[in-house]
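Lecture 7, part B: from sequences to assemblies.

Below are the input chains for today's worked example.
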Amino acid sequence: MASIKISSVRKVYPGNVEAISDLNLDISDGELVVLVGPSGCGKSTLLRMIAGLESITAGEVRIGDKVVNKLEPAERDIAMVFQNYALYPHMSVRQNLEYGLKNRRTPKAEIEQRVNEAARILEITRFLDRKPRQLSGGQRQRVAMGRAIVRQPKAFLFDEPLSNLDAKLRGQMRIEIKRLQRSLKTTSVYVTHDQLEAMTLADRLVVMNAGRIEQVGKPVDLFERPASLFVAGFIGSPPMNIFELATLRQLPGTTLPASIPAKADLVGIRPEALRLEEPAEPFIALEGTVELIEPVGGESHVYVNLNGIETLATVVVQGRLAEGEGSHIKLFMPASALHSFVSETGQRVE
Amino acid sequence: MQTKRSIFTNRWLPYVLLAPQLIITLIFFIWPASQAVTSSFERQDPFGFRTTFVWFENYTRVLSDPSYANALWNTAVFAFGVVAVSMGFALLLAVCVDRAIRTARLYTTLLVWPYAVAPVVAGVLWWFLFNPTIGLLPYILEGFGYDWNHRVSGGQAMALIVIASAWKQISYNFLFFVAGLQSVPASLSEAASIDGAGPFKRFWTIIFPLLSPTTFFLMIININYVMFESFGTIDATTSGGPGQSTTTLVYKVYVDGVAGLNIGSSSAQSVLLMGIVIFLTFIQFRYVERRVNY
Ligand SMILES: Nc1ncnc2c1ncn2[C@@H]1O[C@H](COP(=O)(O)OP(=O)(O)OP(=O)(O)O)[C@@H](O)[C@H]1O
Ligand SMILES: [Mg+2]
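Predicted structure of the full complex, as structure tokens:
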């Protein structure tokens, strides 16, 4: 077990493609850090640089107190779970689990004991003599996890490990990974596209954009106080509604709450925070017609075509909306639920 | 699953479409093969006036002839040499290319050229290169104090035909190995490197086993090549000499039949050769293929 320290790391691929630019991140011992961001923002690249599968153009990666820039993947003592699992197809499950231990010259008795233990934890003992092709997707996923944990490495690296599973299995495995990581207390870096996975798994969440870190923090903090428009739009589903203050000001009979900073020219509000009744605090009122209602289990997503505003507003309503599609509706934005941004820098202002 | 199927309203169209292939097979394969089988049971008098049916006499004669045993042994050595050299080199080259496949277009194209060269031309090429009087390679070898003369040394002559035949086959094997390597996902090799395996270990424990279907296929193809198609190369380089040291089975068929005009014996040998190849292929499918599937 070890901390991971990434200092001023850059990655330039051949052809002058800058995938990571000047990135700093400290991951403490035993922590589970989740990397999220749009496709192509450099998540896999960062992970692969930690693993040693990709050279580091500039900067420094430390695992524990050792600089690992020049070390081979084998010498870094990390384990990685790949999106396609990368199980060795010609070896049985047992051989897959043993491979890393054998390469490290672990004594036979210990290999046996560790493989059996890992198989027990992951409930794959029954499959030990099968080949990977004789397993279902979920079982393969477990074997891939098993191959990581038998080695008892300093850190786990996960690159979208659950993205090939169906929604239900993904939910199960997510909980299992969390439990496993809690009990093993192994430092982990986890890349995902899935909001739910990111929010629920992360001790700390890292939002990346175009090779940079936008914001790092506890998932709840990122949700409640997004540091930039990008994070505001990326974290939370459905995404935050963003309005131009200039447009809001022109709506008839509107006075903007005094709590909005003078520098701000954009305000955002989560779909869950929009009210249908007038709140007790200062607010901005909006009017419009219901364009579309999506019932989603216990709640409904309502899309409203607002008078005087181009973009549709999204509202999350608990239960069902009394009004039907096409009916007139009033919405209220409580001042305390507003997020203010400066459009030029894209940053949050208080 | 639904398969695409064409319905021909005209009953004869399929036969017409198949005809060219069937006719070629008939004229150039079935007919000569059946001729060979027939004449392997016959003897012609020296002037070709009379043929008599002699049952298995040609076969017993061939099989008790020490020069046939010699040719069989030569073929074994030759086959082993060519298969090992051509597949070994091809694999080595393919691995090198696989490491840098994007920049390797030109490299790949150049490596494929030898395959387009006719066996006789390949033979002549190597005959020149290794020519004891005018060749470049004996001259270089002499610089290292090694005396090359395949006209005298049977071992050197064998080495020469192995090199010349293998060289031509390397391109073919190379292409298949490159394709095979490309189909092994990079993440397997990466997983292995994280699992603590160095480049050599990765190759032998992960990549090579996954290439085995390709290797198996190439082994069959190469053995067939060695058995039948190597004739032109041998004829152009050593003509089976010195002292029959490079006379392989297929070359002996030619020497006895065309040069020695012993059609009966030559036919019997060609039938035996075909039998040997069928047997080898059968063995390979039976025993090797079982281990290939994963
Ligand atoms: N081998 C490579 N050569 C050149 N450019 C590359 C290479 N690998 C990745 N890139 C580029 O680097 C950038 C980051 O890629 P990366 O795979 O890290 O993205 P990602 O965040 O993992 O995306 P995704 O969520 O789709 O997996 C992309 O613009 C990509 O095109
Ligand atoms: Mg990726």
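Note for the exam: Chain A has a mean pLDDT of 91. Keep this in mind when comparing with the next example.
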